[in-house]
Amino acid sequence: VEMRLLPLLDDGGALVDRADGGAQLQGLVASARLEKGPALGKAVLLVALRRSCGAAPRRAALRGFLHAGGLRPLGAWLEAADQAEDLPLLRLVIDALGDLPVTARVIRASEVGKTVKRVRTARRERLEAKGSPPDAVDGLFRDLMARWYWSRVVD
What are φ and ψ of residue 15, in 5° steps? Predict the structure, then answer.
């Protein structure tokens, strides 16, 4: 994964700001090998996405990624990380989803909002069944959903 990702990145590890770069990244994200692959490959792509959302966002590349359907695989990774109880990957996916410049329309079209709500509910039910209070990951989910709610209000 890392070798296929290198031509799409600049010196800082963010996406080169081209629409086709975002679409190519989405192709890597959706590839069958990565879908069932190790968490490390997913983490590398998520970090590149987060860096692309930083101080100088790569708008064309991120738009290309989102319009190519990039949120759907991220939702699948979120569910898989939760089922495997891989908290570092779960946190990284939530953070990446929060950093991406999504609109309400993109969230609805990808159905990632439903996935986030379903995973959060399932996690809360598991914690309650164990007698544990909500954890820090629940707070990340809450913050993500609030951010998306406000983006919908502004949309």
Answer: -65, 140
Q: How many CB atoms lie within 10 A of CB 70?
A: 26
Q: For residue 92, give every residue at least 6 positions away whose Cβ sits within 8 Å of its Cβ, in sequence order, or none.
A: 42, 43, 46, 47
User: What is the rounded CA–CA span in Å between residue 9 and residue 50?
Assistant: 12
* 8 Å CB contact between 4 and 28: yes
What are the tokens at 40?
């490390």
| Percent of the chain as helix, strand, coil, to the nearest 5 | 75, 0, 25
Q: Which residues of 5-27 are buried (b: 16+ CB within 10 A; e: fewer)?
A: beebbeeeebbbbebebbbbbbe
pLDDT along the chain (155 residues), means of 10: 84 88 85 69 90 85 90 92 94 95 88 94 94 92 90 55
